[in-house]
């Protein structure tokens, strides 16, 4: 009689426990019980461990099949999946206004949101993203739909309701107090699910769209609930110049975030291409991570993020697709872009040198596919404070894994394998050439969430214990959600709560109130208006929406006059 919720695979497992090395666990039997790896035995011990765990069978991988840890995407804008692959013709600050805010706002149509978010989560799972750190949108309800979709399909997620109370468009902005209230509601809703796969995240979009009052309030919520935090930092010249103009009293984005209390060991800041070494050291001291998003940095950034340099200064670094600033949802693609990015740095240094000699110093920034895989697994796990749970194949960790098949030949697969190629070469081909077709099964917490073109949990309607067990192969599927975190007594159930009365539908449906969702704000144009492409403050195309604009201006003055010295111009 098979032990309940236990299964085993015999074969080769690739992972990267240390940066720069690719380890192969060759011909091992890996046993998963209740979603966790409980034993990694040698292949020749198969009969013994099969008996010990009461397994009816140990499933053997075919030649050319391997397991690799599930990918961890540390930066995704869930609603932007809608327009991924389009609209990259303008700089960041204009891109937000032209494409991003209208698209995100349209998720107030909850039926549309439901449909789109199921497609999104399926697409990411199909591409091997077992864990994603998601930005949702501004309005509360669509974010609940996003959480429900992740829960249903069995993905692991850190999810945030976006907060913005200034410098957004009229119909996509919130009042500071409403934003704080909804952020807390989102946190309690998500924690109230008691699903250990899904955690809420405090999400001030970035400094230009968040008043100090909002950022400080959000930091308090994060502290109260022990939440993750995510935002964007030192992304490109337009953004950085905008912040410098709005907050001249601070030396850098990092100094602003520090003063607001948003740099914690559970914070992930996207991009960081323009961080100084002092900024990086400061983030490292706080335990804050950077999500390296090479593809969107190519699109919007004005500098390269130097992974090896940042790691050498002690920074935690994960990898992100940054959909839709990055035009691909694939973490394989992101890994390749990370490698290309690193070689661009080398090429740039050579060009600047004016010579034809590549020096060891120029080589320092170059990473290989092995380091890129580390970023996509272990680095991401560290960034999300999950390094003891996922990222490698080790006893005690949860089984988040991708079953890779390199046997797809001809046009049924993305690459060909030739005689004499060994496992390591086939695996390297997969990392460099493979795609979702090679990912024949995807596991999260020991549950098969994707097999072939099927998403088994969708059929069963939920990602809970034993969900989605197919009749033909149930030994692979059984797993239960681990024990729930304590302290859930403050949680509220918002599942059926009405949309807050002061919210409005901003486009598309025709049934919503028109205009701003900024509550009783009566104008509140920020003096100076919106930051332009080059970061300069321009005419009033966007609005600030706070409870009291006069108070907001005072708050700026206060922040300028009373900020802790360490956070101000003095370097930290
Ligand atoms: N900065 C503020 N918002 C965004 C966004 O949605 N994408 C990117 N890439 N950068 C941002
Ligand atoms: Fe982003």
Automatic annotation (TrEMBL):
Basic and acidic residues bias: start-end ranges: 546-555
One matching Pfam family: Amidohydro_1
Keywords tagged on the record: Hydrolase, Metal-binding, Zinc
EC category name: hydrolase
Domain of life: Eukaryota
Domain Amidohydrolase-related, chain residue ranges per copy: 68-447
One of the protein's GO biological processes: guanine catabolic process
Compositionally biased intervals (Gly residues): 460-469, 509-532
Necessary cofactors: Zn(2+)
InterPro entries: Amidohydro-rel, Guanine_deaminase, Metal-dep_hydrolase_composite, Metal_Hydrolase, Metallo-dep_hydrolases
Region annotation (Disordered) ranges: 459-572
GO cellular component: cytosol
Similarity section: Belongs to the metallo-dependent hydrolases superfamily. ATZ/TRZ family.
Listed name of the protein: Guanine deaminase
Source organism phylogeny: Eukaryota, Viridiplantae, Chlorophyta, core chlorophytes, Chlorophyceae
